[in-house]
Amino acid sequence: MTGRLLRPRLGVVGGLGPLATADFYRKTIDAVPAENDADHISMAILSVPQIPDRSAAIREGSDRPLPWLLEAVEMLNSLNVEIIAIACNTAHHWYDALSAGSRAEIVHIADAAIDELHRRYKGNRAAVMATRGTLRSGFYQKRLEEAGFTCRNPAAPTFQNAVDDAIRQVKLGNLEQAKDACASAFARCRDEGLEAVILACTELPVAAEDVVPEGMLVVDASRALALTCVQRLRNPDRMRNTA
């Protein structure tokens, strides 16, 4: 329940992981041209690091995280939020079930990222740096194809191993090691002539800081989600009708 004064407009399912959620929060702040505190978006961040591993569940064919995610969405809806962001790419594997059970619109992180790619990139192929679960789910590949792009990741195992390591090191708080691993993944993309990369795990923007190769177009899905949420809340005409 909410009072007459305290009503968050944006609800965030976070903690997946905590540092990635903090990064998303910072990006919502950066997206607002604020002149004072009150100009910023009111929000409720529900940080639940105990939600079972999303990538492992997808690879095992399990829906183990879904009840947790449904409860998180239900809790944010009880606060009467206008829209919901899930600060985890892999959790969007269950987007349809979560969206069906939500009064508030849940903004899809892949849609936000691909919209940005479409605005900024004139080519037709992009690499998707993501968890193995996100790649197994296929929702990025499907949406890229629908938007006229091809998902093209380096085939060498060293690429995905480097992505996995970058994500793991951010979760461990080892940011220098995370940057080294992310730089290695970028190098594999550059070696194969890939000019555009989507950072499709919310840990990866933390790892990518200061290591993006010159001339490579990188779409930060977390930043794209933050921008989309802020734009919709500042321009109600762009929001889905949830009445």
UniProtKB/TrEMBL annotation:
Pfam family membership, one: Asp_Glu_race
Record-linked InterPro entries: Asp/Glu/hydantoin_racemase, Asp/Glu_race, Asp_race
Transmembrane portions of the chain: none
A GO MF term: amino-acid racemase activity
Assigned keywords, A-Z: Isomerase
Family: Belongs to the aspartate/glutamate racemases family.
Designated name of the protein: Aspartate/glutamate racemase family protein
Provenance organism: Labrys okinawensis
Lineage of producing organism: Bacteria, Pseudomonadati, Pseudomonadota, Alphaproteobacteria, Hyphomicrobiales
